[in-house]
Amino acid sequence: MTIEMSHPTSALTIVENAGATYQRAELPDRIQAAYTTRFVSEALDADRSAFHLASGPTVTPQAGDVVVARVSEILNHKRVETPESRKAILFPGAIIMLAYGHRYAADQFLAHVPDSLEPCHLVAAGGVAGTVTEQHADMDDPTRIEPLGLLADESGIVNLSRFAPYSLNPVPALGAPAEELNAALPGRPTVVAVLGTSMNSGKSTAMATLVNGLTNAGLKVSAGKSTGTGAGNDPMIYVDGGAAKVLDFTDFGYPTTFKLDFEQVRSLTVNLVDAMAETDTDVVIVEIADGVYQGETARLLRDPLFQSVVDRVVFAAGDALGAVGGVRELQDAGLDVAAVSGVLTSSPLATAEANEVLACLGVPVIDTYELTSAAVSTALLPQDWRTS
């Protein structure tokens, strides 16, 4: 139930809604929605009168909560990605709709969800708000924003998860027996994971070219990203490569996956694969963000449930040392590495260096764009698939 009453000393309206008390305000006339908020934006467009802004000292943002904010100073991010994945130019004073989220990006920002509606930052162009606490030396300071309030409706504060088209189904618990793990996704298609040494190692491009190569071989391929920071760039690249179905963690209501409980990370990865594994799908390819030493990724690689779902791995690296170290790390974790690709292959010399060592580990280095070849890409599938 919603109870409204006039504030005795101001024109503010005080609202008690879903057990919380806050200051209520009407929505601004013009709001630019971001990619992470695309499903909420659809609901807003359908019935704007059902929503309002919630603000005041009692409002504490949570990851995934939708915030409407004014751009106060344009610095690093000069554009915001729209729900259609267009890069909209930002202007001072623009009103944008984002989602609060934690961000881990070694080449950009470390950011966290603040504990109030204090001025904070646009920490990712895909539409993530947070407070930057660390940044790469080569990065400009983050664009500054002033939250006007959290989006709310009669059910309370709006979180992305309420409007997401997918939700998490139960998966085998940590420590579950092998037979339960193996039965997690019965009848699933072949699953290939794409990982890398770090962000900007060429994972997404390698994944898109692999999608293209398998599609050129006449296979139906689904592609998705299970961890990272919400943005439309990667899903659009997968579409361009020919993927029949594309999803990412934002389709499950997460603006980012940094600082999620590990149980959520493993469940999200398996549920993403399951959602893409339609009956006529031949191969599912899933990208795991950041590098193999990033906390959630490092633990995921050694999770028996992840290993029971993923058949092979393609690894993207930026140099020979990273390629060799990454392959050894993956093999030590018990994963089957099919090939190395990525930024490394832009350099013939670095490729030769990596090949010399990786040959002893049984892993070839393949130029990123050679993966568009049907013969090259299908050779990376499991042996039993190639001989069937």
UniProtKB/TrEMBL annotation:
<dbReference type="InterPro" id="IPR027417">
    <property type="entry name" value="P-loop_NTPase"/>
</dbReference>
<protein>
    <recommendedName>
        <fullName>DUF1611 domain-containing protein</fullName>
    </recommendedName>
</protein>
